[in-house]
Amino acid sequence: MIPDKLILRARLRAERDRFASESESGIMAPAEFLDRLRPGMTVSSYIAVGSEADPTQLAAAAAERGCRLALPHVTTRATPMRFLLWDMTEPLVPGPMGLKQPPADAEDVAPDIIITPLVGFDSRLGRLGQGAGYYDRAFARFPDAWRVGCAWSVQEVPAIPTDIWDVPLHAVITERGMLWHPET
Ligand SMILES: Nc1nc2c(c(=O)[nH]1)N(C=O)[C@@H](CNc1ccc(C(=O)N[C@@H](CCC(=O)O)C(=O)O)cc1)CN2
Ligand SMILES: Nc1ncnc2c1ncn2[C@@H]1O[C@H](COP(=O)(O)OP(=O)(O)OP(=O)(O)O)[C@@H](O)[C@H]1O
Prior knowledge:
- The chain has about 180 residues and is an alpha/beta fold.
- It has helices at about 5-20, 30-35, 55-65, 135-140; strands at about 40-45, 70-75, 80-85, 95, 100, 115, 120, 125-130, 145-150, 170-175, 175-180.
- The protein binds the ligand Nc1nc2c(c(=O)[nH]1)N(C=O)[C@@H](CNc1ccc(C(=O)N[C@@H](CCC(=O)O)C(=O)O)cc1)CN2 and adenosine-5'-triphosphate.
């Protein structure tokens, strides 16, 4: 039986905490990720909170290759997440749930690549997030963006339960490398 998303989320957060406290691993940019980057692309990253996998090396690699960086910005669940222009030197401001975000008056941008924090994933590139629907709604708004999840390898499970609104990822990057199906 496929466990319910709530139960799975709680288990995988605990798994992630344990892995992060025991491991020295970091996320590095795999060659297949670097191959996608083109100057002028807009790449949305995120600022890791707690035991989340830290995508800083992915964002830095994108900036080095001439991409513009963006970060997500949220206020309340009723308001869609925005993607705001950011360069790695600009200061961030505290947001809800311990997040660090660009100031609300930063420029809105349309991302070509969305690097997404994951609670869990499966080999079919199914994704489990925080459950607020921020990324699901963003993927519906930017259907042409390349969706790449970032996680620790211990966050992989045999099958993520899917709801009708779930949009699968194109790739997942962990400390072990990149999982994807190149024909997609
Ligand atoms: N680093 C990071 N930035 C992000 C997200 C994220 O998951 N991680 N988001 C993804 O949507 C958006 C913010 N949305 C969020 C929605 C819910 C919770 C949340 O419920 N957090 C739990 C604790 C989670 C944990 O223990 O790992 C909480 O505050 O109780 C956090 C962020 C945009 N920025
Ligand atoms: N395209 C959409 N438009 C409006 N609401 C949506 C859309 N997609 C998802 N939602 C809502 O958002 C919530 C998403 O729940 P779910 O448990 O699937 O989140 P998740 O995919 O794990 O996390 P997240 O998207 O926050 O990273 C659901 O309540 C769902 O009704």
